[in-house]
TrEMBL record:
Molecular function GO labels: L-amino acid transmembrane transporter activity; neutral L-amino acid transmembrane transporter activity
UniProt keyword terms in alphabetical order: Membrane, Transmembrane, Transmembrane helix
Transmembrane segments annotated in the record for this chain: 16-39, 51-73, 79-98
Protein name as annotated: AAA1 protein
Gene this chain is encoded by: Slc7a10
GO terms, biological process: D-alanine transmembrane transport; D-serine transmembrane transport
Gene3D superfamilies reported in the protein's UniProt record: Amino acid/polyamine transporter I
Amino acid sequence: CLATLIIMLVGDTYTLINYVSFINYLCYGVTIIGLIVLRWRKPKIFRPIKVNLLIPITYLAFWAFLLIFSLYSEPVVCGVGLIIIFTGVPVFFLGVYWRNKPKSVNRLIESMTCWGQKLCFVVYPQGGVAEEE
């Protein structure tokens, strides 16, 4: 979020759209790869929707072409997009992977979560008495 705000202040909207487009394409492709891997490793798992593997494999072929073409035509934009993605790695390790955090770090994370929920209007009741509207 902070990186996006800085980019919006420094760059133009077209560049930001290019960064986000590259990130979206990359995430879509990784998701489809995950779908194919799960179909091979766990073929008996329940799936509400099951498609022929030809469809995701065809999608991946086009995805690879678009991704390679993007990397070739605009390497700087793709590099910045990758840097934006990698800014989430420290957040993952601090918030999810690190299990035995000091209480001060837990309080900081909880207060940042609460602040973000209030900012985005996504605060849900945490139990207790229901409020009347």
